[in-house]
Amino acid sequence: MLASPDDYWRYTKTKNIPGMWLCGLVVLAALCILAQPVAAAEDTAADATENKAVNTLSPAVAEKPQTSTDKQAEADKVETLPEVSVKDKRVIEDSGINRTLPITTITSDQLQRSQPSNIFDAVRSAPGVSINGGPRPSGMSFNIRGYADNEDVLVKVDGVPKGFEKYRMGGTFIEPELLKSIEIQRGPQIASGSGSLGGTVIANTKDAEDFLRPGQKYGAKAKFGYGNNSDEYSRSYLLFARPDERVDILYNYSNRDANNITLGDGSKLANSAMQSVSHLLKFSLVPTEDLQLVTSIVKFEDSGLQQYDVNSATPGFFGYVIRSVDDLTWSETLKYNPNRWVNLKAIVGAGHSDVQDFVPPGLSNVVNQADPAGCVGIVYTPDPSQTNRCKGNATDTYNFKTRTVDVSNEMIFAEKGFFNASLLTGYRYNYSHRDVTRVFDNPVLSPVGGFNPAVPSGTKTFHALYLQSKLEIGQVSVIPGYRIDKYKVEAEGGTLRLLSPFGQASEIEFKQETWSLGLAYDFFDRKDPEKLTLYSNYGQGFRPPLIDEYFTQGPFGFCRSPFMPTQGRPSQICGDYYKPQLSESTEAGVSYQNPHLLGSDVWFSGKLNFYHIHTSRLLSSLGEDDGRVTQDGWERRNGVEIESFLQYKGWYARAGYSRIKGEIVTGHQDLVSAPLFTAPGNAFNINIGTELTKNLDVNLTYRRVSDRDIIVSGNGTLTSPYRFGVQDGYELWNVGARWKASEQVTFRLIGENLKNELYNLDGTFGGIGLFAPGRNVKFMVDLTY
Q1: CATH number of the domain that 694 lies in?
Q2: pTM
Q3: In sequence order, what are the residues at sequence separation of 6 or more whose Cβ sits closer than 8 angstroms to the Cβ of residue 159?
Q4: What's the pLDDT score for residue 597?
């Protein structure tokens, strides 16, 4: 029995996790077998990894016909990065700004400079994006345009959707050390997936080619880091090889070990220590010029004594748990492009997220109340015959499994310069299963089958077909899209016993159609590197109810008498009373890019975007009105997003601003209007950097976030109206420096929150969040072979 935090730490220090180490040994053996002698590279070819792709911007590349998915992506990048003359081996950096869509990409260069501690820190500066909960990664969730629930933002790792439904906990487990880029799509996109009202975060992992220098076939890299705020030690070991031009192999192991976080006032955030281990195994094969096969396996493990509700603003209010996380994502990707009619991309993948909360008596007042005096384990010592007095330890287990198939093809009908036409077609299948159990050491007091009616087990499956065409006539672009989703949600386990006596259905099916339309006008000829574009986009989206919402029974259900005095079901389970939540978004803006701004050598790209979003049939508004079941709640959002990138020789500047205002009308018996309390504060970000010398670069980041409205009390009904307060704004200063001492050794120094400001993160459910970390100085060294 682990009855104390000290017992727990002794337990975790001895925990064995050999599985992926075996994978690493296999890769190492493969490298030794496949490695061939490599001639010493010429001095002019021994540039840093960041500068190895100088020729990718040449006019010759830009003029080559592009037809495959990868080649099309390269063509898009060439359009974004127009022809320039490259001097002193400096490369124009990708701005990461999509000219006509609300999409921002966090590039490999940005990730290398900032060295984020988690994926949430990596995307925090993107317009319209903020982070809820924290500061532990397991307690963080994405907030895009004020959509704050885990289920409102779809997360993909190498094309595989990640799903996680657990009350008061985040659910995105990925080590940023493994990532090559992160794409942030704001708002629903036809090809991204259903349910993503807020948007989609697409994480792509690294390949061996990202590290190999010209002429190099194999190599290795070790990174060691230290952060003084929580005495965090990080280690990363990387093996990579391209023994043949058709084979790419990479294995990465990363480990983080940190104590409790220090806040801006010098105090410690209790139980915020962490231990995490990550692995990435990736194998790419290119049998022919037109065919590519990629296998990717990403594994993440985390353990620690944590708050039960790691995204709460009230540490300890719901008690603590000894939590372990085991997360795995596996994917197989095929890309095939023999001609302009076949530009095929197919992804088959699977994954799991296993979370176990171990709770000794009295540690959490939600999971396991304290046993009465006299209990030793499950034995009641005053009278051992009383076997129903002592529960002993509690164990909550959450097993999430997902499988996905994603097939798309882009056909090019015409590439005539003045007239271009293409059609994207796709099919997507996704299976998500959740199994939840709660057991006590004492089997007499354990629920039958470990069933917890407030957190039901179940399965969610959907099939989707979509079409999106693109027509370009002169300087006008028209992009219509259509998608149809067919869903099935099934209850399992103890929920079936609750439904069966009343003949209530345990399966719910529905279909949902969504449409989109994009319009754009380029003021200059498409071949002109200077581009001024007006655009407008319309899109529909929806969010299906969760298993929790369809089939929960208990204090969180809306089909009890307080909300439905006459229409509440005898089972107290809502079932098909719920309808999918819907959204419509309209946006318009202007983008401009110029490789020679005002006739100079300044490369500039910028975009101004306005949007309006109306969300109807809020799931949280299910209730009864005059004997009718209603779901009439709605939200509206109005926002502006500005992002820009500027580069001049070795200098660059990246800036972004976002502002969201809105209103929510909800309530279970009476509709009540309130400010959109999930909206983050207005945010301004700017990052400036330069290469002082060929081997030394520095950068400075400033972030300013304004005050925001928060809920202090109330549930939004006439009898219990919301009472609002204000969460103070804050500003942060970060700096970074990189010194390349030699081809093999690189040092990095990063300072975060240099003013040591004490500020709150955004909380879930509209409340105030936890305090954020204070000043942190990180030092890292890279050793590359």
Answers
A1: 2.40.170.20
A2: 0.83
A3: 202, 331, 333, 347, 349, 404, 406
A4: 92
